[in-house]
Amino acid sequence: MKGLISAILLTASASAMAADVTPADLEKAVAQDWSTYLAPLYDHFHRNPELSAVEVNTAARMAKELRAVKGMEVTEKVGGTGVVGVLKNGPGPVILLRADMDGLPVEEKSGLANASKVRQKDRSGVEQPVMHACGHDTHITGLVATARQLAALKDKWSGTVIFVAQPAEEIVGGAKKMMADNLYQRFGKPDYAIGWHVASALPTGTIGLAEGVTYSAADTVDIVVPGIGAHGASPQSGKDPIFIASDIVQSLQGFIGREIAPLKPAVITVGAFHAGSKHNIISDKAELSVTVRADDLETRNKLIDGIKRISVQTGRKWGLPEDKLPIVTVREDERAIPNINDTELTRRLHALYAKAYGDKIFTTVTRDSMGAEDFPYLVGPGVKGVYYNVGGTPQAALDAAKAGGPPVPSHHSPLFKVDGEAAVKLGAQTMTLAVLDLAAKPGS
Ligand SMILES: [Zn+2]
Ligand SMILES: [Zn+2]
């Protein structure tokens, strides 16, 4: 009932707008919707996070929210728990808007009143604490906000908008699965694909929008180093896999320093090293879990080839027999391609937002990390894609942290905390403006 009343209010406020929707009108409409409808929805999502690929209740709620938008056709269980809403509004471009909806296996210690206390069995059946520690709750609330605005402003644009609530971003699998479930074939091939991510390192009220590569390619690699077990007091009788694997770990960093061009970003991180059972036993196996990052395919392939060569040759160097050399496995299902923002669309949106808000809306994103995203999997050939960041921390808090005050918690931290209201509002406004511009009615 509450939803119905605010939907009516929203329609009334939208239809009262002048022929052209000004950014100020839109800001007012989103702010009004926040106070009457979106705030409790965001609160609900924040309190009730779900893990990757098991976002069952979140998906059901997103389906319900999108169905409540007049004219929306909603399909559930696309590529697992994915939800797709299609809003057809006459001839014109097809625009895909994406929000990812999964939380993380992190116990929330943000101190927020609506902190999550949820525990859930993950996709392998292991119970975990769950938290929206990456801010995906702002993305899905923002997607609902955008859908409600665009429905209310239907006479201002012409085209089709595909709303995608995507599962399993944190395991880099959800977008791929939705595509494998024939997303384009079933709901239409988009001309444009747009998504945004809240960023705790960026000030509220700003966006980070850049051309070219904004997220890196990522690969998950397992290295198994066989050994020959022996007594710890007689190393000459065995082959010590801990020693050999340690040499591999060291050599991988040397490989980046000596074989990858200095101006090509590349990271190899050995995140886990498991071997052995007791002080005086030489183990028969060591296992390394590795993440690999690059900004282009050529560098990525060079890194993967290098990891294979160094692992195998290090095994040979220390005398492992030919049938017991290290084995390198690249997990194809956990692979991410780089996100490359389309130049033309990025420039068009940049001009649009500069006109709407002035240059103060833009913040510089310093890329000092090689994070990955699976949004680019939704951007097929011939589709112009842009993925941008929306500020999540008040400038004062960022300034205080810089001056030695309390640090701003990073994404995936138990302390992670963003200004959800600011992110949802600006995310929804910028996404709505993008559609109003890209699908503008001729002559408007
Ligand atoms: Zn994340
Ligand atoms: Zn995220």
TrEMBL record:
Keywords: Hydrolase, Manganese, Metal-binding, Signal. It comes from Sandaracinobacter neustonicus. The keyword Aminoacyl-tRNA synthetase does not apply. Mn(2+) binds at residues 134, 136, 170, 197, 412. Transmembrane segments: none annotated. The lineage of its organism: Bacteria, Pseudomonadati, Pseudomonadota, Alphaproteobacteria, Sphingomonadales. PANTHER family: METALLOPEPTIDASE, PUTATIVE (AFU_ORTHOLOGUE AFUA_6G09600)-RELATED, PEPTIDASE M20 FAMILY MEMBER. This is Amidohydrolase. Residues 1-18 form the signal peptide. It comes from the Bacteria. InterPro entries: Amidohydrolase (IPR017439), Bact_exopeptidase_dim_dom (IPR036264), Peptidase_M20 (IPR002933), Peptidase_M20_dimer (IPR011650). Its cofactor is Mn(2+). The Mn(2+) ion enhances activity. One of its GO terms (molecular function) is hydrolase activity.
